[in-house]
Amino acid sequence: xKAMPDRTPELGLARALVETVVTVADDFDAxxxxxxxxxxxxxxxDTLAAGVMYTDAQDTxxxxxxxxxERLARELLEAQHLGGPCIDCFGSGRPVGxxxxxxxxxxxxxxxxxxxxxxxxxxxxxxxxxxxxxxxxGVLGVFAxxxxxxxxxxxxxxxxxxxxxxLAQALADVAAAGLHNQRAYTEYRDLSQQLQAxxxxxxxxEQAKGILAERWQxxxxxxxxxxxxxxxxxxxAMDTVAGMVLRGTLDDAMLQDEYGPSR
Length: 263
What we know:
This protein is α+β, with helices and mostly antiparallel strands. Helix content is 58%, strand content 14%. The chain contains ten helices and five strands. A five-stranded antiparallel β-sheet has the order 2-1-5-4-3, sandwiched between helices. β4 (124-132) and β5 form a beta hairpin. α1 (8-21) packs antiparallel against α2 (30-45), α2 (30-45) runs antiparallel to α7 and α7 packs across α8. The N and C termini lie far apart (97 Å).
């Protein structure tokens, strides 16, 4: 029987893609999710560090990093406030790199970032956008020693850079799809809860109207008018007044005398 080739890198990528797409859950943690994406990217490309700069649901900029080179990744992502591959990528939505940071163009383009990165042994950087449904959620930045990233272990040398960029982009695409799905799920969940609350409130008000109308031997419109006038006078929500009627904590005789139709 012919021996099967070693497909460890492909299996690692497959597992990573499965993990990064499972995001529809109430206990979803975006930092942990994107930190895992960064770690997988760093492992598969054998880089010094990787990290994601992204905006959360409140449009606050956040950073999630790989465990490998965590401090380095955070420092290099934060250092790009004056320019860097991740900022350029976020602005354009297009991949940047892999770029040799000692090259003249890189030094001229991002002088402070290039100097800080190379001083810490980073020779190559690339950035890919986390994009889904036309929206850029953030950027995955990858930081490697000179000669890296060269793609997954075992990749042909002449296709190393294309392989690295393609793998990083695949992870970023799936991570972005996961973020999009999770945020859509959260919006629909919140909307469902709001609709359920509104329906429950309406039911309580209708029940309270019916109780008062039956006790007062009058129409439900008159009962509703009394509840509304009481709510306005006491600065209470109609749902609160309805709850008081249902629980029997509101004196309906007083309500009828002071706010009812015979007043």
